Amino acid sequence: MKDLSELRLGIAGLGLIGGSLASALRGYFKEIYAWDIDPGVLEKGLDMGISFISCETAEEFANSCDVILLAVPLRYMEEISKTLRPLFKDSPPVAVMDVGSTKKEIGEIMISIWGSAYIGLHPMAGKEYSGIEQASRSLFQDARCAVVSGKETDPQVIEMALKIVSSIGSMPVFLDPEEHDSIVASVSHIPIMVASALAYVSGEQMESHPDLSCMVAGGFSDTTRLASGPAWLLADMWDTNSGNMGKLLDRLIDTLRTFREASPEVIEEMAEKARLSREKILSQRIQSD
Amino acid sequence: MKDLSELRLGIAGLGLIGGSLASALRGYFKEIYAWDIDPGVLEKGLDMGISFISCETAEEFANSCDVILLAVPLRYMEEISKTLRPLFKDSPPVAVMDVGSTKKEIGEIMISIWGSAYIGLHPMAGKEYSGIEQASRSLFQDARCAVVSGKETDPQVIEMALKIVSSIGSMPVFLDPEEHDSIVASVSHIPIMVASALAYVSGEQMESHPDLSCMVAGGFSDTTRLASGPAWLLADMWDTNSGNMGKLLDRLIDTLRTFREASPEVIEEMAEKARLSREKILSQRIQSD
Questions:
Q1: pTM to 2 decimals?
Q2: CA A64, CA A30: separation in Å to the nearest integer?
C-alpha cells in the first residue's frame, strides 16, 4: 500500500469537521484538495491559514485526488457520491471515507456506489458552534473515532483509515454499522434531541418570564449546549437513525413520566442510579483512553 | 445598620455552597463560625485552609453568631431553624438567610420561624460535583444571586443581604418567591431532571452495549453534567417545587413526543427554533452582565 505522503487527499465539505480534518492532516498527504458548494467557505478556510488547494468543480476535485473524505451533511452524501463516481473514469479512488453521524443506511448507499473502496469514519468530537470558523487542528486530539468497515471493505482501505485516524490524533473504535448507529443514538443523537427539546421549552417559557435569562447559569448552558449545533444535523440523524433513536426516545419519555408521578423518595433513588450510571460511563471512558 | 465587619456570621452546612461562602466571605465579617452535622466536614474545611471557627453544637453556634446563613439541604431547613430559634433567647439574630434552591414553601416556613429577619438568597452557581472538597472562593464570582424578600422583610436585612451578595462577587436579581420558583424550574430544576433521565437511560443502554462508554465524548458529558449532583438535591426540588416543575415537564414530554412523530423537515424547523431560543436566552444573559 502506498504511504499517505504519496497520495493526494480530497475533502468534500469544509465545515467544522472538514476544515478541522484539513488542518489536522496537514503534512501527511502529498497534497490536500478541498471542494465545497459554497466557494466563500473555501476562501474563508484559506484566509484562516488552513492549507489546501481549492477546487471549483466536481471534475477538478475528482481529477485531483486519490483518497476522498466526504465531510458533507448526510443528506448530500448520495448525490455527491453519484456526481463524483463517474468522474473517476477507469478506476475508483484508492479510498473513500465519510465522516457522517450514522452509518447503516448511508453505508449501504456508499458501498453500492464506491464498492470495496468505501469505509466509514466517525470522529467523536465537536464544538458548541459549527462552520469553518470553528475549525481547529486539535479538534480530534485524544478523541475516539469509530471505524466502520464491512465484509467487502478492501483491507488496504482499512489500513489507510487507521493511518488517518492516527494522524489526526484519535483512537479507533471498530464497530459494525448496526452497533455504531445504536451506540451513537445513545451518546450523541438523543442527547442532541433532548438538549433541543429543553431549549425549545425554555424559549416558550421566556415569553412569559422575561427575567429567566438573568438567572441562567452554567447548568442550563451545559445541558442545552448541543442545541446550538446546526438544525440540519438533528434532522439528518433522525432521517437515517430513527429506529434506534425512537426506541431510546420512548425509554426517555417513560423515564420522565416515571419522574412525573414519583414521590421525592423515588426521585432520589432514580437520581442516585442515574448519577452512578454517568460516573460508570465516564470512568470507563477515561480508563480505556 | 451595623457594618458586616462588626457582626459574627454563622454558616450552617459546610458543603460546596456553605464552604464556598465561608471562603468568599473571609475578611468581611468580624468572625465566621461554621456548624455541620458531620464534624468530619468541618475538619476537612479547616484542612483545606478555609478560615472559620468550628461549632460542635447548635447552642454554641447560636451563641456565637449575629447573622445566620443556612446552607443545608432544603429538607433540613425547618428542623434546623426550629432547633436554633429558641436558643436565641431574648432577641432573634440580626438576619437569617437560606441559600436553598426553592423559595415559596421554605420561605413561608422560614418567615413563620424567623419573622422579619429572614430573607432568601439563591446564588446561581454550582459545580459538577458537590461537597466541601469542591468549595471555591471564586464560585460566586460574576454569578447572579436571586434575592427573595417579602413584605415583612426588615429593610436592614435586605441591605445586609445585598452587602453579602456583593461581597461574594455576585449580582442581585430581585424576585418574588413565586417568580423565583417558576424561573428556576426552567433554568435549573428541569435541566437537572432531564440530565438525570438521560444518564438513567444511558446506564440501561450500556448493559446491552458495553462499547458505549468508548464512544462517549463532550456532548454526552455536558448534557448529563447535572446528573452528577447529589440525588437529594433533585428530590428536594421536586418536594418543594413540583407544581412548576410538573408543568414544564409536561411541556418537555409533549415536545419530545412531537419530535417522536415528526418528519425530518419538522425536526429541522423545531431544532432551528430551539437553537435560536438558546442563543436568545444566553445572549441576554451576557448583555445584562
A1: 0.93
A2: 11
Q: Would you call A201 and B232 a contact, using CB atoms and an 8 Å cutoff?
A: no
Residues whose CB is less than 8 angstroms from the CB of residue A184 and which lie 6 or more positions away in sequence, other chains included: A101, A102, A122, A146, A241, B215
Locate cell 483518497: which residue? A67
CATH number attached to the domain at A4-175 = 3.40.50.720
Q: From chain A, pick out residues whose CB is under 8 angstroms from the CB of B239.
A: 264
pLDDT at residue A288, rounded to an integer:
41
Shortest Cα–Cα distance, B216 to chain A (Å) = 6
The residue of A136, A215, A272 whose CB has the most chain B CBs within 10 angstroms, and thus the best one to mutate to test that interface, is A215
Four-CA torsion B223, B228, B229, B231, nearest 10 degrees: 110
Choice among A50-54, A163-167, B86-90 with the minimum mean pLDDT? B86-90
pLDDT digit string, tens, across residues A55-111: 999 999 999 999 999 999 999 999 999 999 999 987 789 999 999 999 999 999 999
* Maximum distance among all Cα pairs of chain A, rounded to whole angstroms: 69
Look over chain B and give the mean of its residue pLDDT values, rounded to a whole number: 95
Q: Which fold has domain B180-287?
A: 6-phosphogluconate dehydrogenase C-terminal fold (1.10.3660)
- Between CA A119 and CA A97 the distance in angstroms is 5
Contact A190, B204 (CB under 8 A): no
The 3-state DSSP class for residue B209 equals coil
At residue A20, φ and ψ (nearest 5 deg) are: -65, -35
Residue ranges per domain, chain B?
A: 4-175, 180-287
Chain B residues touching A176 at Cβ < 8 A: none
Does the fold of domain A180-287 match that of domain A4-175? Answer: no
Check CB contact under 8 Å for B217 and A143.
yes
**Chain B residues lying within 8 Å of A105, measured CB to CB:** none
Of B124, B220, B231, the CB nearest to A187: B220
Q: Which regions in chain B score pLDDT beneath 70?
A: 286-289
CA nearest to A7, candidates A27, A30, A28, A24 = A30
